[in-house]
Amino acid sequence: MFRTRCVLLIGSICGLLVCAAGAVAQEPKPSPEAKSLTPPKGLRILYSGDSWHRFMPGFMERIGAAAGITDQKVRSSWALNTGGYGNFGTLLEAGDFDVISWGRPSWDSPDFVRLGYIEKALKGNPNFRLYVQLAWNVGDGLGKIKTLVDYDSSNLQDVQGVFDRGRKTVEALADEINKKHGRQVVFLVPVGEAVTKLRTMIADGKVPGVKKQSEIFADTMPHAGPIAAELAAYCNYAAIYRTSPVGLQIKDGAPETQRAILQKLAWETVSKYPYAGVGK
To answer: Is the dihedral of CA 253, 255, 258, 263 positive or negative?
Structure first.
């Protein structure tokens, strides 16, 4: 009898151990959207490009503050609009940057590359990273836009097709540059894709407070309105810091219902795009 009880007790303990082990083995991994309790280390970010990127430094400061980043250093120089060297060249030579963020509508033939600034930047800081914002196309790249409201009638599959064709050109250029330097120097931020996804959601009535696609733009060109600018900023934050913006409460941003959509959309788009380098 005693022996039988011992056998049963040992069997029960073994069963509990097996169940516990199974529970541990099946424990779900943290979601990539889970916000870290420890803020990322602040980076020295140098912004350049033109009016399609000028809102980025201010947004990045606000996002950084919301993320608890206290040592971020954000600067900008827009001298390259006209192909000049100027103050931007001085900053490159000083090497006081970790990241350069570059944004223009003509990203399919980026002046930054054409003018040889990557080599100049590498001399200043051999470990720097260049992030090229692949923004939405002027006039959707379709040649049919005459007024701001015309964006409401664009075929979004065609819009995405134009974006994809231009992106392939830049991806090939990035591959060439990265191969030349033996590491990923050039990173691409798929802002235009995220904006097209947002427009699709708006057309489907899935973005509270926004009834028309054209509401996210400021003019016919189109420059970014507040919503497109905030989405672009979350995309850049996700790529540069390799961290999800989901859950961040930025100051003076979009309403909560819109902000949650923009943050999730930015993270899903950027984290799945290999050229953004989030997984590195």
So the answer is: positive
Straight-line distance from the first to the last Cα atom of the chain, in angstroms, rounded to the nearest whole number? 61
Q: Tokens 């990241």 identify what position?
A: 99
User: Residue 186: what are its φ and ψ, rounded to 5°?
Assistant: -100, 125
Instruction: Dump pLDDT digits (tens) for 111-157.
Output: 666 667 888 899 999 999 999 999 999 999 998 999 999 999 999 99
pLDDT band at 204 (very low <50, low <70, confident <90, very high): very high
Helix axes 226-241, 191-203, angle to 10 degrees: 140
pTM here is 0.85
Q: Can you state the percent helix, strand and coil of the chain, rounding each to 5?
A: 55, 10, 40
Q: How far apart are CA 182 and CA 188, in angstroms?
A: 17
> What's domain 38-276's superfamily in CATH?
SGNH hydrolase (3.40.50.1110)
Q: Are 103 and 133 in contact (CB under 8 A)?
A: yes
Of 221, 224, 251, which Cα lies nearest the Cα of 235? 224
In this structure, how many other beta carbons lie within 10 angstroms of the beta carbon of residue 112? Answer: 21
